[in-house]
Specification:
By secondary structure, this protein is an alpha+beta fold. 24% of the residues lie in helices and 24% in strands. The chain has 13 helices and 24 strands. The strands form seven sheets. Strands 12, 14, 15, 19, 20, 21 and 22 form a seven-stranded mixed sheet that branches. Strands 2-11-10-9 form a four-stranded mixed sheet, sandwiched between helices.
């Protein structure tokens, strides 16, 4: 039956290719290839005796043989499934079906308990004590204990290739107090610590295993190109899972990925509509857009002739026409960001965002405050140095490989040129862009970074932060960043400081999407981390 559905879908797609015009989101859409390389939680069951652990792959046995429908997703057989070190975008998505963390991040950027049942915090906010859910088994039959949690978090923190390592900078020690209690001691208070504890938990000693055992709703079975996900009957809500088996299909090329989705071999696909590479899909599908913590901002070279001047940096902050960039350049696939956090976050403040938005009148006021002046009819502004009058001529660099970033930079440069600056926009390949950043060969740059779910700016603004390319310097800035982590209310002090001294200029947060055949899935609510978030609440309608 399925093969006839596939043939019919392919036939219809061919007809549409010949006769249909472009229809937003349904007939033709240019979207990101998920094969593009990366640039980053009811009652408890009773404890049971664990079986002898086994890392041998299970034989593939379909538990839905009587059904004509098979739910399929794409995977990369050459990519890693290790949940702590894998940077393969296709496989990273599947990982959340296999593994669980102490918490998971909700669409509202809050922490929902998964393998943790409760936790306590000391009065000085330096000691967190987490109570671990009992009766949880890994897919190999081994019971999960606090030692596995401690091991997983330490590996995430200390393994060089870990995708989670940057988020543990405030953590001093992680220890097991007993079989089901974990204690984390911090070097400095961290109010939103649970938000960064969505790290997948694996068995102690398994970091070098290609596919460590997990505790999630599905378990990986098979080998090589022949892989499938089987329902984990030991999972807490296994009776509510929509599939007994999920089929994994090798997406060898972008064309394979497109063809498999258009013929319903692949039923769910995570995409980046504003990414660098793109695929054109022609079948009828639904697009489920979701917010991410991928942050685009303007950074400054603090050693440049222009942006060593604080007033020049401050002026740029009010030249960012974010709404136009989002609507025209990003076609609504992003959210304007005056503050360096999503509107959904508890850190967000609407009044502060309104105060510091796009405002060319404020640009003029800042020039007056800084003693800037024009010397001719061009409108170019100058400021006085000890040697001469310095014009606001700006070398602005951007990675040329993404047309959306280029369009964003072009709009920023356009507004700046209309308001006292003379901007030269330099479009560079990724390698040349990184070389310019690392050799201070620029005045201003447009960048994107995937922030942690708590919107920690440590890597961007602290002196030794690995993304502090312009060497952002301000007295006590590290204390402001620590203060924002210690108390979410103090984040406002940090945001105010950013605008008072022009430390950076937020632009937007990207949105991404999941696509599925129209009408197939109800209650699909993907998050920045997990396309399968809330899978036990899905309703499936195979026609």
């Amino acid at each position: 039956m399925k093969k006839y559905i596939k043939l019919l879908a392919l036939f219809l797609a061919m007809i549409m290719l010949c006769s249909c015009s472009v229809v937003n989101g349904a007939i033709t859409s240019i979207i990101e290839s998920t094969r593009e390389a990366a640039a980053s939680e009811s009652p408890e069951p009773s404890p049971e005796e664990s079986e002898e652990p086994s890392d041998e792959p299970e034989e593939i046995v379909s538990s839905i043989e009587s059904s004509n429908h098979q739910f399929g997703v794409a995977f990369d057989p050459d990519g890693s499934f290790n949940p702590i070190t894998s940077q393969n975008r296709l496989n990273q998505d599947i990982i959340y079906l296999i593994y669980e963390g102490l918490f998971e991040v909700t669409p509202e950027y809050t922490a929902r308990p998964v393998l943790c049942t409760s936790y306590d915090v000391s009065d000085n906010l330096l000691v967190y004590t987490f109570n671990i859910r009992t009766g949880v088994k890994f897919h190999n039959g081994q019971s999960m204990t606090a030692e596995d949690v401690v091991y997983s978090l330490n590996m995430a923190s200390n393994t060089e290739s870990s995708v989670y390592s940057s988020r543990f900078h405030s953590v001093a020690t992680i220890t097991a107090l007993d079989d089901y209690t974990v204690q984390i001691v911090l070097g400095s208070p961290y109010e939103q610590l649970p938000l960064i504890l969505d790290v997948p938990i694996i068995p102690e000693g398994s970091i070098d295993t290609a596919v460590p055992s997990g505790t999630g709703p599905y378990k990986l079975s098979g080998s090589g190109d022949s892989l499938t996900l089987l329902k984990n009957n030991d999972w807490l809500n296994s009776s509510r899972l929509p599939f007994d088996q999920i089929y994994l299909y090798n997406a060898e090329t972008s064309d394979t990925l497109r063809d498999d989705f258009e013929t319903s071999r692949i039923d769910l696909l995570k995409i980046d509509p504003t990414g660098t590479s793109s695929i054109t899909f022609h079948n009828d599908y639904e697009l489920f857009q979701y917010s991410t913590n991928i942050f685009q901002y303007v950074g400054f070279n603090y050693d440049s002739d222009v942006f060593s001047n604080e007033y020049a940096r401050r002026a740029v902050c009010y030249c960012i026409d974010r709404e136009t960039i989002v609507e025209d350049a990003y076609k609504g696939r992003a959210a304007a960001a005056v503050l360096p956090c999503r509107e959904e976050s508890i850190l967000y403040d609407a009044a502060l965002s309104e105060k510091h938005g796009f405002n060319t009148a404020r640009v003029k006021e800042i020039f007056e405050e800084g003693g800037f002046t024009t010397l001719d009819s061009t409108g170019l502004m100058y400021f006085e140095t000890s040697l001469f009058m310095q014009p606001l001529t700006v070398d602005f660099i951007v990675n040329s490989e993404n047309p959306y970033k280029v369009a964003s930079a072009e709009r920023i440069a356009e507004v700046m040129n209309e308001n006292g600056f003379s901007v030269t926009l330099r479009l560079l390949t990724y390698d040349d862009y990184m070389k310019a950043l690392n050799t201070d060969d620029y005045d201003m740059y447009l960048a994107e970074v995937k922030l942690t779910p708590d919107f920690d700016l440590t890597t961007i603004l602290t002196y030794y932060g690995k993304l502090n390319f312009g060497t952002v310097t301000y007295e006590d800035l590290s204390l402001y960043i620590k203060g924002a982590l210690e108390n979410s209310g103090a984040a406002l002090d940090l945001f105010i400081l950013i605008y008072e001294h022009g430390l950076m200029a937020p632009v937007l947060f990207k949105d991404q999407a999941v696509i599925a055949p129209r009408g197939l899935i109800t209650n699909l609510s993907p998050t920045a981390a997990n396309s399968f978030y809330g899978i036990s609440d899905w309703i499936i309608n195979f026609e």
